[in-house]
Amino acid sequence: MSTPTTVRTATQIPHLLGLQGVAASDMRRYLEIARDFATGSRTDRPLEGKTVANLFFEDSTRTRNSFTVAAHRLGATVIDLTGSSSSINKGETLIDTARNVEAMGVCALCVRAKQSGAAIMLAAGATCPVINTGDGKHEHPTQGLLDAYAFAEAAGRIDTFDLSGLNIAIVGDIASSRVARSSIAAMRALGAKVVTVGPPGLVPGGLGAEVATNLDKILPDMDAVMMLRIQFERHADGAPPPPAGQGARSGAIASVREFREFYALTEARESRMKQGAIVMHPGPINRGIELDAAVADGPRSVILKQVTAGVHVRMAVFAKLAVG
Ligand code: CP
After folding, report:
1. How many domains is the chain built from?
2. Tell me: the pLDDT tens digits for 46-61?
3. Which CATH number goes with the domain that contains 285?
């Protein structure tokens, strides 16, 4: 009996689990496909008749819905499982959940989980591509790609996606941020210089970026500033964010008031950015903490363009990985 050609062994299945270690040429390819979908030069629907599974065991607004939009635009139907609506609540494991959904014949698993490494664990032995949509503090690869796309778009460089000569600061709670890890990998691979900035307790070294603690000093040299939310829920005590001005219960920063004084992108700081420099944020924004509302909504902000780029990047990832 001949072997069906559609069956792939586990080692032949392509996954997107992170950007650290991924070749610049592979990242560029995703971005080029995203550009082709964005500009309308590519209009095919390669997932017609297929089903994509969203397995979101942690909350999401942008990522989950943009994977859904991307899948629909490519012709797929979507299984949309969230932690609160799944049998995880009855004691089923992540692996059993994923294997059961795979058994329904899906073409990709899009996995978000609190646990760093969850997508890697599910990819081992998976029968379809696994796309990491954010795992703990580890990686968020499609966010890194969409951030690079939005930066290239603002700089007028989507013809090459070459970010050489451009500087980007990523500011805030780097330690908790999977976005920072993936964005640093993408920006650096494409040629940008990345500076991570924040209080010493929130900015670890070893991520491949230059480390700074004085935002005011580096701000005028930056072509892009990407602000990050303080992820109190990932700090040791899991404390919810206190209102601006009140003491933080997390030990990582002295107080939200002090964080704002030194690291928030306020209107005053925004006025000292260079001409043409952009403001980015992966969302969700905590307005009035890391970013002033007037800056989030101001002329430098490309925050909603990041969201739009996210749909095209996710279409590209599906088109590259989920068609086999
Ligand atoms: N940027 C991002 O991952 O946002 P969500 O948590 O809303 O998906």
Report:
1. 2
2. 999 999 999 999 999 9
3. 3.40.50.1370
Which ligand 1 atom is nearest residue 310's CA? 1
Together in a domain, 175 and 57? no
Q: How far apart are the first and last CA of the chain?
A: 22
Q: Give tens-digit pLDDT for 204-252.
A: 999 999 999 999 999 999 999 999 999 988 886 555 555 554 545 456 7
Protein residue with its CA nearest to atom 3 in ligand 1: 63
Does the CB atom of residue 144 touch ligand 1 within 6 A? Answer: no
Q: Report the atom number in ligand 1 closest to the C-alpha of 58.
A: 6
Q: Is the CB of 282 under 6 A from ligand 1?
A: yes
Ligand 1 mutation pick, 62, 111, 290, max ligand atoms within 8 A of CB = 62
Asked whether residue 2 is domain-assigned, the answer is no
66 lines ligand 1 (CB under 6 A): no
Domain encompassing residue 122: 7-141+309-321
Residue 101 sits in the same domain as residue 164: no
The pTM (predicted TM-score) of the whole model is 0.93
Indicate whether 203 and 122 sit together in one domain. no
Distance 9 CA to ligand 1 centre (A): 32
Which pairs count as long-range contacts for 78-83, CB under 8 Å and 24+ apart, including other chains?
A: 78/51, 78/52, 78/53, 78/54, 79/51, 79/52, 79/53, 79/54, 79/104, 79/106, 80/54, 80/56, 81/53, 81/54, 81/55, 81/56, 82/56, 82/57, 83/56, 83/57, 83/58
Closest ligand 1 atom to residue 140 Cα is 3
